[in-house]
Amino acid sequence: MNILIRMAFLGTGYHGFQVQAPGRPTICGTFQDALQAVLGTRPDVKGCSRTDAGVHARAYCLNFHYDGAIPPEKLPLALNQNLPGDIRVHSATEVPPTFHARYSAVEKEYTYELLNAAIDDPFTRGQYHRITRPLDENRMQAAAALLRGTHDFATFMNTGSPVNDTRRTLTHLSVARRGQRVVITAAADGFLYNMVRILAGTLADVGSGKTPPKAVVDILAARNRQNAGPTLPACGLFLHRVVYPGL
Amino acid sequence: MNILIRMAFLGTGYHGFQVQAPGRPTICGTFQDALQAVLGTRPDVKGCSRTDAGVHARAYCLNFHYDGAIPPEKLPLALNQNLPGDIRVHSATEVPPTFHARYSAVEKEYTYELLNAAIDDPFTRGQYHRITRPLDENRMQAAAALLRGTHDFATFMNTGSPVNDTRRTLTHLSVARRGQRVVITAAADGFLYNMVRILAGTLADVGSGKTPPKAVVDILAARNRQNAGPTLPACGLFLHRVVYPGL
């Protein structure tokens, strides 16, 4: 039986999704510990994305195969009883045998969340990047509109994972302010390494007045990481949604 | 110089505001440690309210007197550098010598925040009370309207702190849903011990169908704690606003 799990996690205490050396807790390893406790076996787990250390997820997806001795609808409660409170399983559903949480995904949506304030927020520590200087979200939104579509996004990629093709289709990129929060939402068929964090850093430079909105056209066309803004820290990044056809 | 401090804190790690025995961290004690570090003295601090262990505040107010060697506008940054991240000072302003954070307050507003869901939220742990059974916020709002005004609120008080007069004026009581969140907002000239948490427990009983909305009229009139709903846990309670005339 192939099971799709949807879950939320606060990434602050984890070294990303992918299992690492012992002593470095990861989302995948912690989830497999819970599977072991519930199923008595430790299935291989396929995650929808290798999130970096400190990145959060509101709707992370993963899948694994098991013999089905426990009906899928009983898994969320059983797994949550064996998971720490910073990881919560929302649902478990049977999917076709060929389903793969990473390769079956046709779109992913991330948010990058900024606190535009002089003082940190004690209620959401580790869940935003704070920028003190005033951000003009209208400038940011104008720049975002110029980056949407199918482009070579080599400018917005850090080296780290080799890729053959740096073209991606950014189906959505928008900026919205809610009080002191400025939220950047980005959806694409796939993202390059650190792409959302570099887009966020570039848009923040536009919002603060350092970069003119229209300059992002040349920044994109340069296909050179040096032309973009900084890679903002992992703590502001949330995997928000993963789209699978027919699910 | 009499200084009014406005600050936010996440109460999860503290045994309430009031200083207690050594080894039990409190908001007041932690704030005085920061004052000691910044001013070199440890002034007496008057808080607007004795919040219980685990209660949070978005706009807690306190005042203290000091010689004014450091201008008030420099205090927030200096204090925040000496406070843990779960306490953040928002402002420091000079107020008249007779100002007292507790006795000068004419109104306080609290929110009680419910998560109406089967699964906990990893991003706001310790910042809500979770109720699984569906809550009808319209029923709750109807009941809330019947409790507003000047009444003897003895029904909604736990024993613990002796009071002569249990009459209070509830200037505002409302219930609003935002997705899975149900937020109860209560404002009054003053609150009895655990009053908001018992009001919240009673309204939750109305929302879940256990208590008819109109029954709160008799519950209030009984002036008997036994007639009200449960005292909901401290983690859902936020001091939201304190009103001082002319400030």
Quick structural summary:
The structure is a homodimer of 247-residue chains. Chain A is an alpha+beta fold and 247 residues long.
Kindly list the characteristics that best describe this protein.
homodimer, 247 residues, alpha+beta, 10-stranded mixed beta sheet
Question: Given the helix and strand composition of chain A, which structural class is it?
Answer: alpha+beta
Strand count, sense and barrel status of the largest sheet of chain A are: 10 strands, mixed
- Return Rg of chain A in Å: 19 Å
Between the first and last Cα atoms of chain A, what is the distance in angstroms?
A: 16 Å
> Which series of helices and strands of chain A comes N to C?
EHEEHEEEHEEEHHE
**Could you state the oligomeric state of the chains shown?**
homodimer
Low-pLDDT residue intervals, each spanning 5 or more residues of chain A:
none
Number of helices of chain A: 5
Largest interface, counted by CB within 8 Å of the partner chain's CB: A-B, 20 and 20 residues
Average per-residue pLDDT of chain A, rounded, comes to 96
Helix content of chain A: 10-25%
Beta-strand segment tally of chain A: 10
Percent of residues in beta strands of chain A:
25-35%
SSE diagram, text form:
The structure is a homodimer of 247-residue chains.
Chain A: E1 2-9, H1 27-39, E2 46-47, E3 56-65, H2 75-80, E4 87-95, E5 107-115, E6 129-130, H3 137-147, E7 149-152, E8 167-178, E9 181-188, H4 195-207, H5 215-222, E10 237-243
Parallel strand pairs in A: 3-10, 5-6
Antiparallel strand pairs in A: 1-3, 1-4, 2-3, 5-9, 5-10, 7-8, 8-9
Helix pairs in contact in A: 3-4, 3-5
